[in-house]
Amino acid sequence: MNIEWTKLPFGYFKTDYNVRCFYRNGKWGEIEVSSSEYLPLHMAATVLHYGQAAFEGMKVFMGKDGQARAFRWDENWKRINNSADGILMPEIPKELFHDALKQVVDLNRQYIPPYGTGASLYVRPLLIGMGAQVGVKPANEYCFLIFVTPVGPYFKEGFKPVRVQIVRDFDRAAPLGTGCYKVGGNYAASLRASERAHEEGFSTVIFLDAKEKKYIDEAGPANFFGIKDNKYITPDSHSILPSITNMSLRQIAEDLGLKVERRHVPVEELGTFVEAGACGTAAVISPIGEILDRDNDTHYILCKDGKAGPICTKMYNRLVDIQHGDYPDKYGWTEIL
Ligand code: PLP
Ligand code: COI
To answer: With a threshold of 0.90, does the pTM exceed it?
Structure first.
């Protein structure tokens, strides 16, 4: 194998195997190993028409010690079941999720990027409605699968400040909609806004709360946080995905002596932050250097020298060190696979 690990983008890279498990007649079957990248799908499957699709994203990191560590997979397991519950799909037992994860990582071990390359193995669990329906109803058959793919940084800038834009002419999720679940429809709803942002030279968009358009909601495929007065401030909203990275950073922020606030973050407050970032499994921490409010041409400059701020840098280093086994894992966030 000849992979240029340090040049990997965040994209699909074929690996050898994926694992699948089917839910039929009210129960889960056995885990099946597959080398096919395709699924046998009924043309009336609910995933195709009515969006019964939930997914997860987590990472496995190779340590200096040659051990592969999965980061907080149990939180991803809880969240996929919360998403499943939200769109009426069956629950995945913890043991099934864990066995599938272990098997798929084991079968593709050669694709775990080496320590020090900045790359990791991205793990993508997926749960979809496979059964046929024409009326708007949940399917009676489901497929749970996991594939893995080695990835580099989500934003091409890596750990460098990105430019983002606030949009008001698109909503990602309705106030009482599915924004808090990791379901395909939310991503479909975000495509137009994010493509336009890319065309206009921005890495991603900031969606505001759909009801009042006053508060920061989601930062594209990541949660938002801002730093000021030695505080880590992150939005509290029903329509954002409860990010596992954000949950970890709240702990890390406290460990680093910051106060944590989880509350509504009004747009105008952006002018008061000394640092800000977008956080997620794929994004890790992407420091935000500049925010443009597209509707009134206000520019919030959060970084003048093109470098990540000191607090973002400290939090990033601590997180990445825990993930790689370079800093004591005192909360039991990693599991060696
Ligand atoms: N928000 C959205 C919309 C996402 O897609 C993601 C990625 O999973 C996140 C936030 C960050 O969540 P996590 O840190 O659990 O990856
Ligand atoms: C992740 O961070 O894992 C995501 O799912 C974000 C995006 C690739 C959908």
So the answer is: yes
